[in-house]
Amino acid sequence: MDTQHQLPAALFGLPKAVLRVLYRLGTKYPVFQAIFARELRAIGATSWTAQLIDDFIHRPYGEAYGLTPKERQTLVESFQRNIATIQSGTPLSVHLVLAREILQIPPTVVGDVVECGVWKGACSASLSLVCQRTERRLKVCDSFQGLPDDGTKRHVGLHTRVYGHYQAGQFTGTLDEVRENIARGGALSVCDFIQGFFEDSLHQIDSPVAFAFLDVDLESSTRDCLKALWPRLVTDGLLYCDDAGDLDVVRVYFDEPWWQETLHFPAPGFVGSGCGLPLSPTYTSIGYTRKTGAFDPSQWRKVPFLHYPEENERT
């Protein structure tokens, strides 16, 4: 177990009398309050991640591709190793969610997996293993020279109460560095590298896209990615984004005039706006949207608390 989670585990094994003393210290002294708050957050994060791991291993993700629970467990171990050995902007929970979504794409659906914004390639290494198992190509897209210039624009996390600025060149991972990391922790043979800023480089993608993951930080880069990838995304395809907490980015997915004018498609919205998908008790950075086609009732569920006029018409 990670050393940061050893203290919470130890706390549960202490006698009640000792815990009462620690509780009194925690309510009296700010330093103990901070320690307890940190460790309780660790307990929550650990239990949620453990649930995600258990779900990933024991539910039939990738069954259509012949994956067994043992193979899914091996994937989890590989993801953990990648995060431990490669500088990563995404935690294990994100790797698990992206992997399970790709594994649920039917084998009959033709299309590549595209990742935009890869930093050092930790997530790329994990995704490449999933693509290898599902026989899909992974398009690894980045400038490989960090972020473009964002000027002095202030970025604010409404839910986290965090603000700050990006710098040109921030989050740089060179092409050689990313290739080496994927070779060590993933499957380099399934990867195609697309180098350059997205406005200029993504036109090279001319095949269907079955799944996309954007971790591009900037509103402008998000729009560039959507302009290039959305027309290629298959119907019912998912596009995940690691900038769920940045409402400037999230607003792009609700910008109806821009979508109609640029992509001739209704604005799809965004699941996880502001505080991310419920993968932890506090906040996560990922959310997603889906490219829907014509409404097909067979692909959706009915619930008892909603009304269905067509049923009344039949009776």
Task: Describe the fold and architecture.
- Helix content is 43%, strand content 13%.
- With 315 residues, the protein is an alpha/beta fold.
- It has one domain: Rossmann fold.
- A six-stranded mixed β-sheet has the order 5-2-1-6-7-8, with helices on both faces.
- Helix 9 links the parallel strand 6 (209-214) and strand 7.
- Helix 2 packs across helix 3, helix 5 runs parallel beside helix 6 and helix 6 crosses helix 7 (175-185).
- The chain is globular and about 65 Å long.
Mean pLDDT: 88
Gyration radius, in Å: 22 Å
- CATH homologous superfamily - what is it? Vaccinia Virus protein VP39
How far the N terminus sits from the C terminus, by CA atoms, comes to: 59 Å
**Anisotropy-based shape:** globular
Number of strands: 8
Order of helices and strands: HHHHHEHEEEHEHEHEHHEH
Taken together, the total number of domains comes to 1
By DSSP (H or I, 4+ residues per run), the number of helices equals 12
In percent, how helical is the residue content? Answer: 40-55%
Strand content: 5-15%
The biggest sheet amounts to:
6 strands, mixed
CATH class: Alpha Beta
Q: And the CATH topology?
A: Rossmann fold
Q: Record the strand order, biggest sheet.
A: 5-2-1-6-7-8
